[in-house]
Structure formats: structure tokens, C-alpha cells
Amino acid sequence: MAKLAALGRRHFVGLFAGIGAETLRCQTPAELAEAAGRLLAGGAPQLVVLDQRFADCGEAIESLRKRGVVVLLLGAERGEGHPALDDIRQVIEVAAGANILGEY
Question: Is 18 helix (H, G, I), strand (E, B) or coil?
């Protein structure tokens, strides 16, 4: 089992295949739930990057988190708002001290 897995639409997971992530393509919430179950059955990875389109699939996400998997939602479409990416940027800025003087 890879330490990293990517779940989502084909164009999203393809980006992570090149770095050795286990990739599971999903088009619907039902497919996502099935993919999450397969991940857990095969030994859960440490990190799952998830297509933001499936942010409303709380039950599948929660099942992964209960097993200690870090689930990270990432935006997959250009031109859409990316609240998940904005949250990540903010966390990184705080951790690095880049926001010590506030917004710039």
C-alpha cells in the first residue's frame, strides 16, 4: 500500500500517479464510498488527497479519518473558487511565520 492515495476524477488523480500515489478514479459519491472502502480493506494510506468535488461525501471522508488517515481536499478545476487551497495557504503562512505582519 502506498503512503499516498488520490481519489477523484481522472484528470485529478492522474497528477498524483506520477509521484507513486495509489490512484482510484471516482465519478460519483457512490464510487467514492466504494473506493474509500477498498483503501481501508487493503491497509489505509497515511494521506489521501481528495478531489474537492467530493467535499460533501462526509461519511466516506469520516471513515478514512477514523482510521487515522489524513484527508486533504484539493480543488481540481481552474477558474473555480478554491477554499481548500486558500485554507492550506493560510496554514502554511502561519506555520512559516509569513503572516507575522498581517496581510501583504
Answer: coil
